Each structure stands twice: as C-alpha cells, then as structure tokens.
C-alpha cells in the first residue's frame, strides 16, 4: 500500500484525534496551519476518499468524514519506510523513540513496535 503524503497525513492525523468531522471542521482545524483554502482541504479529503483512506457518511444531511486507515499501522508504515528507504537502516527499530508523540497511546506504541519489527522479521525471512 502507498503511504499518505504530508497533506493527506495532516488530515488523517486530525481525523484520528478528533473523530468524524465535516469538511468545514477539518478545514477550520487543519487548513490555516497549512495555508490552505477551503477548496484545497476538500480536494485532499476527496482524494483520501477516492483512495479509501477516509469514509464519508451523511449525518442529518451533512457529509461527515472519518479515517478508514488504522493510525498505528499507517504510522508504523511511515516509520518503517523512512528508516529503511531514507536512512538505510536495518535491524530492529526502537518504537520507544516515539514515546513522546501525542498521537500514540502506550498500547499503540506496543502495537507500533510489533508492526515495525514484524516487517523486519518478514524482510529477513524473505532474504533467507
């Protein structure tokens, strides 16, 4: 699976922390910090919906969006990609490095560690 780009990740992070939101609510929370117009936020949400990374529901006639991607798996994939492809790191990765992140609970950090290092085990088994 491909990874979200920085704009898509900004929207996903907001939805993960805030839960289902209208496009206007997402824009009000994320758009100003990204210097986006409302149309830019809507374009990003539509792209995420097309990819199946957010789901749309109608609530009392209002379109509401929610993240369809699992936060821990997505962040784990980004960490793994960065460590392996950008930094050329090999071997186990310490998920504890991310303990100060406001985006991950202790249980999610444990899951992240398993996700990152399970991929490492699969990679090394595939090379054998």
How would a textbook summarize the main sheet?
3 strands, antiparallel
The helicity comes to 55-70%
Give the CATH class of the largest domain: Mainly Alpha
Question: Which strand order spans the largest sheet, edge to edge or round the barrel?
Answer: 1-3-2
If you consult CATH, what is the topology of the largest domain? Arc Repressor Mutant, subunit A
* Overall pLDDT score: 82
Radius of gyration: 16 Å
**Could you name the CATH homologous superfamily of the largest domain?**
Winged helix-like DNA-binding domain superfamily/Winged helix DNA-binding domain
Note the gap between the termini.
Answer: 24 Å
Family: Belongs to the BlaI transcriptional regulatory family.
Keywords: DNA-binding, Transcription, Transcription regulation
GO molecular function: DNA binding
Pfam family, one: Penicillinase_R
Write a structural description:
This protein has five helices and three strands, in the order αβααββαα. 60% of the residues lie in helices and 11% in strands. The protein folds into two domains: 6-67, Arc Repressor Mutant, subunit A (Orthogonal Bundle); 71-127, no CATH class. The chain is mainly alpha-helical and 128 residues long. It is elongated and about 50 Å long. The chain has helices at residues 6-18, 23-34, 38-51, 71-86, 106-127; strands at 21-22, 54-59, 62-67. The protein has a three-stranded antiparallel β-sheet. This is CopY family transcriptional regulator. Keywords: DNA-binding, Transcription, Transcription regulation.
């Amino acid at each position: 699976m491909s990874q979200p780009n920085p704009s898509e990740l900004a929207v996903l992070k907001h939805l993960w922390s805030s839960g289902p939101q209208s496009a206007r609510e997402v824009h009000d929370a994320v758009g100003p910090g990204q210097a986006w117009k409302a149309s830019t936020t809507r374009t990003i949400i539509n792209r995420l919906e097309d990819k199946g990374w957010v789901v749309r529901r109608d609530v009392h006639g209002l379109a509401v969006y929610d993240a369809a991607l699992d936060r821990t798996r997505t962040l784990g994939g980004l960490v793994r990609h960065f460590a392996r492809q950008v930094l050329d790191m090999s071997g186990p990765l310490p998920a504890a490095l991310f303990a100060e992140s406001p985006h991950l609970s202790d249980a999610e950090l444990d899951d992240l560690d398993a996700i990152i290092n399970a991929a490492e085990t699969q990679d090394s088994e595939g090379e054998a």
